[in-house]
Structure formats: structure tokens, C-alpha cells
Design brief:
This protein is an alpha+beta fold. It has one domain. The strands form 4 sheets. Strands 3-2-1-12-11 form a 5-stranded mixed sheet. A 3-stranded antiparallel sheet has the order 4-6-5. Helix 3 packs antiparallel against helix 4, helix 8 packs parallel to helix 13 and helix 11 packs parallel to helix 13. The two termini are 43 Å apart.
């Protein structure tokens, strides 16, 4: 009889264990292994990591492989560098907490930030070269005082880059904004996305040693710039100062001394808030604020995020709404605009990614910001943006785990993300092996997930890596620290 009871107990235990696994998917151990496979896959097939940081195209990850077109895709700049910086910042924090080697992560982070500096320094020169139809290998003349200003192209993945590194990738062709768009310049959307990754770098990394990291420059312009501003001192890089400097460049870029008359459909409204090409002072093609959203409400979110990163108020000009951010906060609270007057109570709903992003990084409403991020995630059929609550906790709470415990939602939140990771493909994401991860980024474009896409796409998986690291910091590393 005793033996039968033991066998029954074992059977019940196994049934319970299998049931738990079916509910919560892969264990943390297996997710750790999956993460490592994704990271290795990213390095092997989606990015060229190069210590020669001024070479075009290097240290900027591609987002997907389009096998049906035999092409690597670098997308529009709204998910690659933002996710990549977020991955590296969170990875460094986890490794440091666990006292693991950080050389690979530190190197990639340094090179990625240098890629932003390269874009900032050379973009006007490349735009000038292309507009003048000069040869493929022109003599580049730069003006550091004028060109290091926050304005840059979305990427610089060029034909020359492809010729040099084609063997590294799985396809015979490529597509990037730099080579295939009429106007490769960044938009306000790109800045908003970059700020997400940059804020995580500022909070989680602070200073890093670069003594053991090989790095090579074609000119002394970038290192001199960083050293003159106290960012690079000896064998150390102060990432907090570096991010503050980049954020200041961005927020000053979108404020212009000269008011510009926006397009005719907007009745010729003039504003200081827009992004223009410094070479011709014309509005950039996409996301310049020409639809007035930058001047009416986004300006407040930019100012608050820059204030968080720099400790200073970098407002130079008023927008078309009060500086206290009433419209911004209303949109964040209700996710709609109610038309006044003769058309009462007719809501205009919209994809509020940019509002939620700037609220996450700038935290203009304190703890209410976090409550709203959770509410919108839980009550949006499509636009959930699961990364924002986790980023807010890491940026703005003293202890992420304790904050969740204090408000009584730790287990609920952990279960939410456990369930989300249930069907992450172990060896890489593509368009047919997972309903939750068959997209360039479920965090940026969740509306693409329900669609049946053409077979033949393999995705970088940076959305999973970013989310999983945020999850580890909030639910594993911070909890270990609190015990």
C-alpha cells in the first residue's frame, strides 16, 4: 500500500509540474538559454560589430531577413537602435549584478553609441555629397561645430558597407533608409525611440571602463568632442554625461530660432518646433511636426525627458499650447481628444505610442504615469506596448520589485510576462512559428502581429531580448537584491 501511495504522489507531482510548465511556458533557465541563442544570432546574422567605429553601416543592427526577396532589411530606424541600446544597457546591469564578465556588452554599447556620434558628425556631409551627385568615394569635409548638432540620418548602411560585409549576412541584397529613401533624415519618431534606449543607458550603466576595448577612429573629431565635454576621461566613459549631451542636442534640434510656416492645409501656422535639414532649412520628409503635433503637445514630453536626463530645462521657445502640458497629460490619461463646441463628445482615438513613450521617459505625472501605462496596456486590444511599464519601474522607482509589492500587483504582473514568453521560439523568430513574435517588433508595431504575412521573413528578436531583460531586472535581479 505504501508503495502505491508513493507512486500516486509522484504521479500527482509530475502532473502538477507539467501543468505549471504548460501555464508559464519555458522556465527562467530555458529562457536564459533562449536569450543567449538570440544574442549570438543577432551578432552572427544581423549586425557587423566593428572597432573601426567611423566606418559606414557598422554597429547598427538590421531588423529582419526577407528571404522571399533575398534581402536584409534595416527598417525605418524606429526599432533597431532603440531596442539595441535597451538590450545592451539592461544586459550590462544584469551582468554587473551577477558579477559576470561585461567586456562583450561594454564593447557593443560603446560601439553603438559611437555609431550615433558617427551619424551626427557625417550626415550633413553625406547629404551634401548625394545632392551634388559626387563620386561614390568623395573627399569628406566636415565642420564639427556645425555638424555635431543632433541632426542625422536614420542609418548610414551604404553600398560600400554592403560590398565590404555582404559575406556576413544570409542574403545577396539589402535595403536601408540611407540608400533607398528620398529623405534619409531622422524624424521626431526616431528621436522618441532613441530616447527610450538612451534613458536606460543613463540609469543602468553610468560609467564604464574602456581600457580593454579596442577602438579606432579615422579622425580625432569624435574623441576630442567627448573629451572636451568630460564624457571621455582617461580609460573611462561617463555614459550618463554622454546620454545627457545627446539628449540636449536632440531637444535643441527640434527648437528653431526662426518660426517656420507649416504647410497650407494647416492655414499657414508658424512655429519654432520642427525638424529641418540644416543644408536647406526644409522640413524633413517624415515626422517633422508639420502636422502640428510636435508644437501642440509633444514638445512638453520632450522637455520633460530632457529634464530627467540632464537635470536642466532646455526649453527655448513656447509651442502652440501652454508649457504646463495640459494637452499632453489629457491625451495620456484618456487616449483621445474630445472636439469642443458644435460637435460634442466625439472622440478622436489614435495610436498613442509617442505619448506613452515620452511619458515613460519623462515621467511628468509621477506614479500616475505608471498607473496609466498599466491601464492602457491592459485595456488596449492591440496597442499594449508591454515594455513601457517595465521601463518606467527601472527609471523612476527606487526599487522596481518593492514598488510592485507595495501596490499589491507583483504576482499579477509577473504572471502577465511569464505568459507572454510562453511561446517565444527557442531558435529565432519568423513569420510562421509564433503568434506573439512574428513581427519586426511587437513593442513598436503590435498591429502587425494579427496579420498573415508573406512566408519567408526571419526577425532579429530584439523585441524579445529587450523585454526579457527588463523582466529579469524587475522580477529577478531586483528581488534578489531585496532579500
Amino acid at each position: 500500500m505504501k508503495l502505491s501511495y508513493v507512486l500516486i504522489d509522484i504521479a500527482l507531482f509530475l502532473m502538477f509540474s507539467l501543468n505549471i510548465n504548460s501555464i508559464f511556458g519555458q522556465s527562467n533557465f530555458h529562457l536564459d538559454s533562449t536569450y543567449e541563442r538570440y544574442r549570438e544570432r543577432l551578432r552572427e546574422h544581423f549586425i557587423v560589430i566593428d572597432s573601426c567605429v567611423e566606418h559606414q553601416g557598422v554597429n547598427i543592427p538590421a531588423t529582419e531577413i526577407n528571404y522571399s526577396e533575398n534581402r536584409m532589411e534595416w527598417s525605418d530606424g524606429n526599432s533597431n537602435m532603440s531596442h539595441y541600446l535597451s538590450i545592451l544597457a539592461t544586459e550590462f546591469a544584469i551582468q554587473s549584478n551577477q558579477q559576470k564578465p561585461t567586456l562583450q556588452t561594454r564593447s557593443e554599447l560603446l560601439y553603438a553609441l559611437m555609431a550615433l556620434e558617427r551619424l551626427d558628425l557625417y550626415s550633413e556631409t553625406f547629404l551634401r555629397t548625394n545632392s551634388n551627385n559626387e563620386s561614390e568615394y568623395p573627399v569628406l569635409i566636415v565642420n564639427p561645430r556645425a555638424n555635431i548638432n543632433g541632426f542625422h540620418n536614420r542609418d548610414d548602411v551604404s553600398s560600400e558597407f554592403w560590398k565590404s560585409h555582404k559575406h556576413h549576412f544570409k542574403t545577396d541584397s539589402f535595403r536601408s533608409v540611407y540608400t533607398h529613401a528620398n529623405d534619409p533624415a531622422l524624424s521626431q519618431d526616431n528621436i522618441i525611440h532613441h530616447l527610450e534606449g538612451l534613458t536606460l543607458v543613463s540609469v543602468l550603466v553610468n560609467k564604464i571602463s574602456i581600457k580593454d576595448i579596442p577602438i579606432h577612429f579615422d579622425t580625432p573629431i569624435i574623441p576630442n568632442y567627448l573629451k572636451n565635454r568630460g564624457i571621455w576621461a582617461g580609460d573611462s566613459i561617463d555614459c550618463k554625461k554622454w546620454v545627457a549631451d545627446i539628449a540636449k542636442r536632440y531637444v535643441l534640434l527640434i527648437q528653431n530660432k526662426t518660426k517656420k510656416r507649416l504647410p497650407k492645409p494647416l492655414l499657414g501656422v508658424r512655429t519654432h518646433w520642427y525638424i529641418a535639414n540644416p543644408l536647406n532649412n526644409e522640413l524633413v520628409e517624415e515626422g517633422s511636426g508639420s502636422d502640428l503635433d510636435l508644437s501642440i503637445f509633444f514638445h512638453y514630453g520632450f522637455i520633460e525627458t530632457a529634464r530627467f536626463l540632464t537635470g536642466e530645462n532646455h526649453r527655448r521657445y513656447h509651442g502652440l499650447s501652454p508649457t504646463h502640458g495640459m494637452i499632453f497629460k489629457t491625451l495620456m490619461r484618456y487616449r483621445q481628444i474630445k472636439l469642443p463646441g458644435f460637435i460634442p463628445n466625439i472622440p478622436i482615438k489614435f495610436d498613442d505610442y509617442k505619448i506613452r513613450s515620452l511619458a515613460t521617459t519623462g515621467n511628468p505625472m509621477g506614479n500616475e504615469t505608471f498607473e496609466l501605462l498599466l491601464h492602457h496596456r491592459n485595456h488596449s486590444a492591440i496597442f499594449k506596448y508591454e515594455h513601457f511599464p517595465l521601463i518606467w519601474l527601472i527609471l523612476h522607482s527606487k526599487n522596481a520589485t518593492q514598488h510592485l509589492l507595495d501596490v499589491g500587483i507583483y504576482e499579477i504582473e509577473k504572471s502577465y510576462y511569464d505568459t507572454l514568453f510562453m511561446d517565444i521560439p527557442k531558435n529565432g523568430s519568423n513569420d510562421c512559428n509564433s503568434k506573439n513574435w512574428k513581427s519586426t517588433s511587437r513593442c513598436v508595431w503590435p498591429e502587425h502581429l494579427p496579420k498573415t504575412s508573406e512566408i519567408g521573413h526571419e526577425y532579429s528578436g530584439m523585441d524579445f531580448m529587450m523585454l526579457f531583460n527588463l523582466y529579469r531586472l524587475v522580477f529577478i535581479v531586483h528581488k534578489d537584491n531585496s532579500n
